[in-house]
Design a protein that fits this description.
Largest sheet: 8 strands, mixed
Number of helices: 14
Radius of gyration: 28 Å
Oligomer: single chain
Helix content: 25-40%
CATH architecture of the largest domain: 2-Layer Sandwich
Shape: elongated
Strand content: 15-25%
CATH superfamily of the largest domain: Bira Bifunctional Protein, Domain 2
Strand order of the largest sheet: 7-11-12-19-18-17-16-13
Bound molecules: 4-amino-1,4-dioxobutan-2-aminium adenosine-5'-monophosphate
Length: 474
């Protein structure tokens, strides 16, 4: 009853407080500061309240005692309420630890937005042990947590590191469209929509647009969302993902692989040189070490032999690609043959046994997209391409790239072989007409790279609001 009557007023005789973000507080030590944020942790004792404030830039330990701890707001304070705290910032005494090494002794504060308690309290809504689909519904609350926000912060650091690396490699950033009328990676995974009465798609890859940028801007890259209507409920497939793509002119296939390796390794080095990022990587993935260069290069044909030598088989399929089962519903496991697609399970086993990044290269043309350049001078029955996938332990494929068909006639033949109507591709074909060049590029799944870097079980933890079959909220 008494507490209800206490109304706090800021003491005008105290030094003026400076408004600050938590990450900037070191420079304000021994001064009065005003910090706003969310109550991240709360420990209330009879005469003292310890709280951890979170403002997105960091965490701050704050202490409320005396009058400031006796108000109605103090007694009814809840987790995730927003508060503005004012007080003296002091270095924590030796032997004690606190985030940032300092602590705020609050002399004045107010509640900006009280969060509910009881049944509707934050901790009741968000039980860490909840069913995954409940946690997916509550993603907007999950991202307030330390792990989820660390992953998102690392993601931002990673994008920044990539941009720095591309600048060093003289690659220019472009922003291609999401609404398109041409497919890149085959019709099976296209999201189609009605575009003012015409069919259009959500982009699967910005590659074809990047290729048109080469004569205009030179080597380019983009971060763009790609969309895949794949009905795969795996830990590495999203319906929408952030696609980092690069395209380079006047290169060889070897140059392409060396470039991909350089972009990844130099970006990881930039992250590891940043103390904030190293702390996050240590927290999420304590055993992380930067991969050794050069990456192992393994041809598709050698990989098939490797799988057979290691007894890694795959379920037999009929001509339509359906898995054949016996009368008991059991799959018949058979050896890999040249021409087979290396399925996710086999690829994962191989990558995990080898235990380091692998450039798997020179895939059969049959298995790959229409635009890929064939290895010159082949006479065999199976035709191989200048293509590569980069495989990482625990995740599998994180990059897909290739050299592109540079020759006009060869491209026209490729459209025909794939049953593509060249009409809509007139602008892509024009690239082979007006000054063609040897060129190549790649796409990297940002969530997959992040899953590798941060040791996450699934790419779903690596997107802000992940989308997968049946999931487009929040
Ligand atoms: O291998 P993909 O399909 O290659 C392309 O789209 C090329 N046109 C890229 C290029 O050459 N510019 O996809 C490239 C990468 C994959 O290695 C994977 O990391 C990621 O994109 N990816 C996905 N990530 C999450 N969910 C999905 N459904 C993905 N599909 C591909």
């Amino acid at each position: 009853e008494e507490s209800k009557k206490i109304v706090l007023a800021e003491d005008p005789s105290l030094p003026k407080a400076s408004k600050a973000k938590i990450s900037q507080l070191t420079e304000w030590r021994s001064k009065r500061v005003r910090v706003s944020g969310w109550v991240h942790r709360l420990r209330q004792q009879k005469d003292i309240t310890f709280l951890t404030l979170r403002d997105g830039t960091g965490y701050l330990q704050a202490v409320l005692s005396g009058t400031v701890n006796q108000t109605y707001e103090a007694l009814t304070l809840t987790m995730e309420s927003t508060v503005e705290l004012t007080g003296l910032l002091q270095t924590v005494p030796e032997g004690k630890t606190a985030p940032g090494g300092h602590e705020l002794t609050v002399d004045y504060w107010k509640v900006l937005g009280a969060a509910p308690g009881a049944d509707d309290a934050f901790t009741n809504r968000l039980n860490e042990k909840s069913d995954p689909s409940i946690l997916a519904d509550l993603r907007h609350l999950v991202i307030r947590g330390e792990t989820a926000s660390s992953v998102l912060r690392l993601r931002a650091g990673l994008l920044d590191a990539f941009r720095q690396t591309y600048a060093k490699h003289s690659c220019l950033e472009v922003t291609p469209p999401c609404l398109v009328q041409t497919m890149v990676e085959g019709g099976a995974t296209l999201f189609q929509l009605n575009y003012y009465g015409e069919p259009a798609f959500l982009t699967q890859s910005s590659q074809l647009y990047l290729e048109t940028c080469l004569p205009s801007l030179g080597d380019v890259f983009c971060f763009q969302e790609s969309f895949r209507a794949e009905n795969s409920h795996t830990r590495r497939h999203l319906a929408e993902y952030t696609h980092l793509e690069g395209e380079l002119a006047f290169i060889t296939f070897d140059d392409l692989m060396a470039h991909i390796e350089a972009i990844i390794c130099e970006s990881v080095d930039i992250l590891l040189a940043n103390p904030e990022m190293t702390t996050i990587i240590k927290q999420l993935n304590p055993n992380f070490t930067a991969p050794a260069r050069p990456f192992l290069r393994l041809s598709y044909a050698d990989a098939i032999a490797w799988l057979n030598e290691h007894g890694i088989k795959h379920p037999e399929e009929d001509a339509e690609g359906n898995v054949i089962k016996d009368e008991n519903g059991k799959e018949k496991m058979v050896e890999h043959r040249i021409g087979d697609d290396i399925a996710e399970a086999a690829e994962r086993q191989m990558t995990d046994i080898i235990g380091k990044p692998i450039f798997l290269h020179s895939f059969p043309a049959e298995l790959k997209a229409f635009y890929m350049k064939k290895i010159p001078g082949q006479t065999g029955k199976v035709v191989f391409t200048e293509s590569c996938d980069l495989l990482m332990p625990n995740v599998g494929e994180i990059v897909g790239g290739s050299m592109r068909i540079a020759d006009y006639d060869e491209l026209i033949a490729a459209y025909k072989r794939e049953g593509i109507d060249p009409t809509n591709y007139y602008w892509y074909t024009d690239q082979r007409k007006y000054g063609t060049c040897e060129h190549g590029g790649y796409g990297l799944g940002v969530e997959r790279l992040l899953a590798w870097l941060a040791n996450r079980y699934t790419v779903r933890e690596c997107a802000l609001y992940p989308r997968w079959p049946g999931r487009a909220k929040p």
